[in-house]
Design goal:
This protein is mainly beta and 92 residues long. It has one helix and seven strands. The strands form two sheets. Strands 1, 2, 5, 6 and 7 form a five-stranded antiparallel β-sheet that branches. The chain is globular and about 40 Å long.
Amino acid sequence: MPKITTNHHWYSFKCRNEVPKKILDDQFDYLDENCSYNSFLKYKGTWYHISDFSIGAPEKWDGYYAHSYSYAVVIKISEDNAESYQIGTWIL
């Protein structure tokens, strides 16, 4: 049975200038500097951009990032301001 683990805390997205330059150059060089300013996050040591997440996550979640067939990161974006999110792990 799939299981999602989260602490249900809300976090604020990080601005582009809060992401280390090496991470921006290595992982996010395809992003336009003007369109990706306040949409980064770091979870369990890994940086993500909101565009990394796919639609089709389990109920009550807005997106997922699959690391493997049996492990994904899920995200829920706040409805009131879209500047905060909840995050968790989804294990199949």
